[in-house]
Specification:
This protein is an alpha/beta fold. It has a single domain, classed as P-loop containing nucleotide triphosphate hydrolases (Rossmann fold), CATH 3.40.50. The protein is built from eight helices and nine strands. Strands 5-6-7-3-8-9 form a six-stranded mixed beta sheet, with helices on both faces. A three-stranded antiparallel beta sheet has the order 2-1-4, covered by helices on one side. Strand 8 and strand 9 form a beta hairpin. The longest helix has 15 residues. The radius of gyration is 18 Å and the shape is globular.
């Protein structure tokens, strides 16, 4: 069902992340090479503390507490600069702004006119059209996360970095928001950090498991995302990911 939200098909932007990171001289992760394919979803899993969020923040050129030794290059050899939208683990909503104004904050901070019509349609898509005038404190954690997702979608950038965007949602809403994101981010270059093997198996074109000593690439089903939750190949991939995360030999 279309609402005119995914307005343009952007040129593909691939990203190559190569390097290692240390914190106060101690290794966070050893040298890795992460290839993020243009116009596809790349999923990054791994135990807590191995640097997955650091990878996202380095690509987004945000402050980190690490020393990164490496390079981040693009397939078109152009800087990422304003081509990235980033959704953090916490919703980072402004408590004094309404839901609608939070979604439009990017345009306001850039001194641009906010597209309230498009923002209202996005709110409808994430199931929050009745809450657009509320302040964040009046929302549940899952509702706040959906506002943050709508704000990220509102930016309409060719590169989307998502850090556990569906973690606070119940199972039904999570599945619906996965499907909505897959629809609206079609033709975008997406890097998703998640702890959920089922989510990666369902959404990923490519999936990597990150550990302190490197990356492991996972063979994905031949079917294209977004995959059915009960698809046999999806469930098999989910099982493989779960066993890797538990340290079992594959």
């Amino acid at each position: 069902m279309g609402y005119g939200i995914a307005r343009r098909v952007t040129g593909g932007v691939g990203i190559k992340f190569s390097g290692s990171a240390t914190i106060d001289g101690a290794p966070l992760f050893m040298p890795i090479t992460l290839n993020i394919t243009p116009n596809e979803w790349t999923c990054l899993l791994g135990p807590s503390g191995v640097g997955k969020t650091t990878v996202l923040r380095e690509i987004a050129a945000l402050e980190t507490a690490v020393d990164f030794d490496g390079s981040i290059t693009t397939s078109d050899n152009k800087p990422l600069n304003d081509r990235v939208a980033y959704m953090a683990q916490s919703d980072l909503l402004f408590p004094w702004l309404s839901v609608l104004d939070n979604i439009c904050i990017g345009a306001k901070l850039r001194g641009q006119s906010a597209d309230f019509e498009r923002a209202t349609k996005l709110l409808d898509r994430v199931g929050l059209s009745d809450h657009k005038s509320k302040k964040p404190k009046a929302l549940s954690g899952g509702q706040r996360q959906r506002v943050a997702l709508a704000r990220t979608l509102m930016e309409d950038r060719p590169v989307i970095l998502l850090d556990e965007p569906f973690s606070a949602l119940d199972a039904k809403t999570r599945a619906e928001m996965q499907e909505l994101s897959a629809e609206l981010l079609k033709s975008k270059t997406v890097l998703l950090v998640t702890h959920d093997p089922a989510e990666a198996a369902r959404l990923g074109h490519s999936v990597y498991v990150m550990q302190q000593d490197g990356l492991q690439t996972i063979k994905m089903p031949s079917t294209s995302p977004i995959r059915a939750t009960d698809d046999a190949d999806t469930l098999t991939t989910q099982g493989v990911l779960f066993r890797i995360l538990r340290g079992q030999v594959i």
